Amino acid sequence: MSTFAAFFSSMGTAVQGAASQGVLWGVMTLGLYITYKVLDFADLTVDGSFALGGAVSATLIVGGMDPFLTLIAALLAGMLAGAATGLLHTKLQIPGILAGILTMIALYSINIRIIGAANVPLLGEKTVITAITDTLPIGKNWAAILIGTIVAGAVIAALYWFFGTEIGCAIRATGSNERMVRALGGSTDQLKIIGLALGNGLVALSGGLVAQSQGYGDVGMGTGTIVIGLASIIIGEVIFGAGGNFARRLLSVVLGSVVYRVIIAMVLRLGLKSTDLKLLTAVIVALALSIPVLRRDKDLRVYGIVLLAGAVLYLLLVNAAAALAPGNATLLFAARFAALGATAAGFGTIWLTGRRKMAAILKR
Amino acid sequence: MLKLENVSKVFNRGTINEKRAINGLSLHLAPGDFVTVIGGNGAGKSTMLNLISGTLAADSGSILLDGVQLQKLPEHLRAKFLGRVFQDPMMGTAADMGIEENLAMAYRRGKKRGLSWGITAAEREEYHRRLASLGLGLEDRMKSKVGLLSGGQRQALTLLMATLQKPKLLLLDEHTAALDPKTAAKVLELTGEIVGLDKLTTLMVTHNMRDAIRMGNRLIMMHEGRIIADIAGEKKMGLHVSDLMEMFEKASGGEFANDRMLLG
Question: In CATH, what class is A14-282?
Answer without folding.
Answer: mainly alpha
